Amino acid sequence: MIKVKNLKRIYHKGIVEVHALKGVSFEVKNGEFLGLMGPSGSGKSTLLHQLGLLDTPTGGEIFIDEINILKLSENEKTLFRLNRLGYVFQEYAILGELTALENVYLPLLMMGKKKKDCINLGMEMFDKVALGERAHHLQRELSGGEQQRVAIARALINKPKILFADEPCANLDTESSRHILELFRKLNEDLGQTILMVSHEEWHKKYADRIIYLKDGLIEKM
Ligand SMILES: Nc1ncnc2c1ncn2[C@@H]1O[C@H](COP(=O)(O)OP(=O)(O)O)[C@@H](O)[C@H]1O
Ligand SMILES: [Mg+2]
Question: Rounded to whole angstroms, how far apart are CA atoms 212 and 48?
Answer without folding.
Answer: 12
